[in-house]
Amino acid sequence: MAASLRGLAVALAALAVLLHGTDAAAAATCVGVAPAKQRPEVVSITEFGGVGDGRTVNTWAFRKAVYRIQHQRRRGGTTLHVPAGTWLTGSFNLTSHMTLFLARGAVLKATQDTRSWPLMAPLPSYGRGREMPGARYASFIHGNGLRDVVITGDKGVIDGQGEVWWNMWRRRTLQHTRPNLVEFMHSSGIHISNIILKNSPFWNIHPVYCDNVVVTNMMILAPHDSPNTDGVDPGLVHLDGRRPSGDQERVGRVRHRLRAPELRHHNPPRARLVAVQRHRHRQRGLGGVRDVLVEDCAVFDAGYGIHIKTNVGRGGYIRNVTVSRVRLRNVRAGVRIAGDVGDHPDARFSQSAVPTVDDVTIRDVWGVGVQQPGSLEGIRSAPFTRICLSNVKLYGSRNDAAAAWKCRDVRGAALGVRPSPCAELATNLASGYCT
Ligand SMILES: *[C@@H]1O[C@H](CO)[C@@H](O)[C@H](O)[C@H]1NC(C)=O
Ligand SMILES: *[C@@H]1O[C@H](CO)[C@@H](O)[C@H](O)[C@H]1NC(C)=O
């Protein structure tokens, strides 16, 4: 295990050097966007009565600290320092111009007090909770309408203690949609790095209606059978920074979810997910996900390695998505791009809201223990276009090539793909967009 991880680190470092041009370009997208900067003021959670003994509930201390930072603003912002210790707390909000810093040995632990967990309105683009009708549980760490927020540290941990929530899901006793671990809404300039997220009740990081969200150097852990513990789930429908109007809310289920890699049980030496979302108000009520870059990830012991999905009923688009330099180990399917995943919250969706998927490149992927290379399944009335697989090598358990790809209603190109790509992609190499 240790040896193979070291091998991975070396391989990724080598790749990073080889592809430095790409790397620099990616970093340039984030200039001024990811302010992982020093803040002129640092306060400690202990100044607000926090006790890191693993038993004291610190919700009030965190809320007081954030209130202080919000109401006595310092130019350049404030760092809230969480020293080593186990800090049990309920859900709390962040504020603009702050850094939440988790020192080495610091564990921010969510209380398992599900009965008094705060509720909030469902996302307008869903019109209801993702799992249950009506309100949803607030995320453990939440931000709404913020700018310039950093969550970072020295390998500190945010532990969602999700087991109680997973069990409620398994026993069908959930009253409301489960909480995300970290969620930002209507925010911009968010940087999350250098910490470990584990055992999220639901999705780990959910930026929604956000711009300029950068997630780098993260380790995200959950048992492989934990339900819906997606790593980073960038969403959706951002209408030029405005909230959808009532009308659009009604069209409401217009939404996309780009389920960027489920990062489970993984230990990437260096993983970066840059989701640059620029959603434009193209047609009334429709939005999309575009300009997303995911690179340098390792995904271990998961269902899907790389998964992009949408549904009839969501409308809008997924466009200009690049996923590169990903290592997979022990996954059920390497790559899945799907246009009808069927997970509608209810049956009231519009058959005419057909999403388009265009210009998706999956490049430099190396997988072992991959049961199925994957499936690229578009929508009959709107085939996916310009899907490019380049240098994607997926092997089964004993260095055999994995089983065959499954494709339909998809057009694109493939270069250096193992096992052999399906005919839909093998056709169109001259087009230039897949090199
Ligand atoms: C946190 O933010 C949410 C959404 O903006 C708000 O409804 C809630 O009252 C806030 N909670 C606290 C404790 O400030
Ligand atoms: C595609 O997305 C990348 C970010 O991944 C961005 O830098 C680039 O400008 C986008 N291309 C177009 C044509 O919008």
TrEMBL record:
Offer one Pfam family short name for this entry: Glyco_hydro_28
The yes or no answer to whether the keyword Hydrolase is present is yes
Q: Which UniProt keywords apply?
A: Glycosidase, Hydrolase, Signal
Q: Which residues form a coiled coil?
A: none
Q: Which segment of the chain is annotated as a signal peptide?
A: 1-24
Supply one GO molecular-function term.
polygalacturonase activity
The biological processes this protein is annotated with in GO are: carbohydrate metabolic process
List, alphabetically, the InterPro entries matched. GH28_Enzymes, Glyco_hydro_28, PbH1, Pectin_lyas_fold, Pectin_lyase_fold/virulence
SUPFAM superfamilies referenced in this protein's UniProt entry, alphabetically: Pectin lyase-like
Q: Is Hydrolase found in the keyword set?
A: yes
> Which PANTHER family does the entry mention?
PECTIN LYASE-LIKE SUPERFAMILY PROTEIN, PECTIN LYASE-RELATED
Family statement drawn from the similarity comment of this UniProt entry: Belongs to the glycosyl hydrolase 28 family.
**What's the protein name?**
Pectate lyase superfamily protein domain-containing protein
Originating organism: Eragrostis curvula
